[in-house]
Design a protein that fits this description.
This protein is mostly beta strands. It is built from no helices and 18 strands. It is globular, with a radius of gyration of 15 Å.
Length: 133
Amino acid sequence: MTGTTSDLTGTTSDLTGTTSDLTGTTSDLTGTTSDLTGATSDLTGATSDLTGTTSDLTGTTSDLTGTTSDLTGTTSDLTGTTSDLTGTTSDLTGTTSDLTGTTSDLTGTTSDLTGTTSVVMLPGQFLHLAITP
């Protein structure tokens, strides 16, 4: 999806009970811009098997401002997954994630967050700025 622009403004996705098997899938999202402003994703009971998946998100910009993700009961198996997020900028300001009952198996997962900047605003707290060297 090199150079692809996706505008999902106001989109509602209901993936209840969906099973996704992406075994051995390679996704190259270099230079991709995704605008999910106001999008709502309901992944209740969804199962994602990303065993052996390689995702190259180099230079990808994701704006999830105001996005609400309900991952209640979601199971993610990322065994052996490699994610290269070098230079990726994620703005999750105002994002609400409900991970109640979520189980993530990250056995053998490698994440390269070199140069990644994360801004986290917690209710009733000051701004926390985390920069991975």
